[in-house]
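Q: Given only this backbone (458 positions), what sequence would you predict?
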């Protein structure tokens, strides 16, 4: 059997390396601001103490999540679920309004890739110099620059991995363990894994993650419609494209406003040509808008050859960015956020569980009393020590005894033995009782728990 060795018929082709050109403009400033704010929060928050603990800490062994002054316990899992719903709905909302805003400004892949590009430009130079350096043979200058870039990349990736683990292990303790080479296996694995993932995704793969690995590019079209704001090239105004001098009249030459400078392609981090229409590889970073507007200014043409617009407006039709689906998303988001905020603020900072002793249904005591024994688990979710008052609601026949004294330190979990006694004449069979737990300090934190009290059948 003959084998086709023609490279032109190959099923797979390696994508050429993308060398994004640096660009300045209002959208570039917004991206830079997003990078500084998001990475500033990521790298700084673990070092900030709040209320006696790390400001943001997901303490998995203790099963507590600290977010500033709020502590979430396993029983608060519903809030995590709601936050994920809010995140998903937010993605739908912003995508329906203005396309892939998340990808262009807030996605971790975009943010960290931007930082790695900054380091690359600082060491190797601008786009032309980077292309020339990669094409040149290996020499002392190339080895020095490539080594310096790798040193910066690896150092930044390791710092990123260390910070990531610092959200799950107190970062100051983690730093001491790292310096003394006493990191545990769990911390070591995630430190190296996240460092490697950062280096690989932001330094090596870059646009390949957005083009081939990210599923969002594939299903984003389901959230678009003809009134969604997207970055688009005005073909009617720009075509036919062609080079010319600034003094030339494009109408006399039969040309549109596009001068075929290809700068919009050179600044694109995924290497696409926006003039070919909306593509799944576009991450809506708007770098092409910034550079095209600068070219239009130099040619004394009107800005907006590449701009945020809608498909309807490009076609000359009337379009409405604020349409019914946007209002639906907005009010759903508002209701969810308000509901979660109210639920968190109104949480009762006390958990109580009563489990009746299964070894004996009940015990008969001298004096005609029946006793049930329970295991009581109390969780003080407050940041203050509390002493608790425990009483049976609306049942004067019931006596209650707890040992040891129910006193809990901040965020302490305590187990107690609770005994309840009632006269035989109080009833028969299984009785429902309500037990109220409340703090003796002000303001009062109160919770009521129901249980079953067993009596002999007469």
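A: Predicted residues:
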């Amino acid at each position: 059997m003959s084998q086709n060795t023609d490279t032109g018929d190959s099923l797979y082709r390696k994508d050429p390396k993308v060398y994004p050109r640096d660009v300045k403009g209002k959208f570039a400033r917004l991206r830079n601001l997003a990078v500084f704010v998001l990475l500033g929060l990521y790298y700084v928050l673990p070092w900030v103490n709040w209320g006696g603990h790390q400001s943001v800490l997901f303490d998995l062994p203790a099963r507590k999540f600290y977010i500033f002054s709020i502590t979430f316990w396993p029983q608060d899992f519903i809030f995590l679920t709601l936050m994920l719903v809010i995140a998903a709905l937010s993605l739908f909302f912003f995508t329906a309004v203005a396309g892939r805003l998340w990808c262009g400004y807030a996605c971790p892949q975009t943010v960290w890739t931007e930082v790695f590009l900054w380091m690359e430009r600082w060491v190797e130079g601008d786009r032309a110099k980077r292309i020339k350096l990669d094409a040149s043979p290996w020499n002392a200058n190339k080895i020095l620059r490539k080594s310096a870039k790798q040193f910066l990349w690896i150092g930044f990736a390791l710092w990123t991995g260390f910070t990531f683990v610092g959200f799950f292990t107190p970062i100051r303790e983690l730093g001491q363990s790292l310096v003394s080479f006493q990191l545990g296996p769990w911390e070591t694995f995630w430190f190296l894994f996240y460092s490697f993932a950062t280096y690989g995704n932001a330094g090596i793969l870059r646009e390949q993650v957005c083009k081939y690995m990210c599923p969002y590019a594939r299903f984003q079209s389901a959230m678009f419609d003809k009134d969604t704001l997207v970055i688009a090239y005005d073909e009617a105004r720009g075509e036919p494209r062609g080079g010319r001098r600034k003094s030339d009249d494009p109408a006399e030459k039969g040309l549109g406003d596009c001068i075929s400078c290809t700068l919009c392609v050179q600044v694109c981090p995924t290497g696409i040509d926006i003039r070919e229409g909306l593509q799944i590889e576009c991450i809506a970073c708007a770098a092409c808008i910034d550079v095209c507007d600068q070219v239009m200014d130099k040619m004394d043409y009107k800005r907006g050859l590449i701009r945020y617009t809608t498909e309807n407006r490009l076609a000359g039709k009337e379009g409405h960015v604020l349409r019914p689906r946007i209002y639906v998303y907005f009010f759903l988001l508002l209701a969810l956020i308000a509901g979660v905020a109210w639920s968190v603020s109104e949480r009762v900072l006390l958990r109580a569980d009563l489990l009746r002793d299964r070894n004996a249904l009940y015990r008969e005591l001298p004096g005609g009393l029946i006793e049930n024994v329970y295991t009581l688990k109390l969780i003080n979710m407050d940041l203050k020590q509390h002493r608790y008052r425990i009483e049976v609601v609306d049942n004067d026949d019931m006596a209650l005894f707890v040992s040891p004294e129910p006193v809990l330190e901040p965020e302490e979990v305590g187990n107690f033995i609770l005994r309840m006694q009632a006269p035989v004449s109080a009833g028969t069979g299984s009785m429902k009782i309500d037990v109220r737990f409340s703090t003796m300090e002000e303001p009062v934190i109160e919770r009521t728990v129901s249980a079953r009290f067993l009596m002999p059948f007469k």
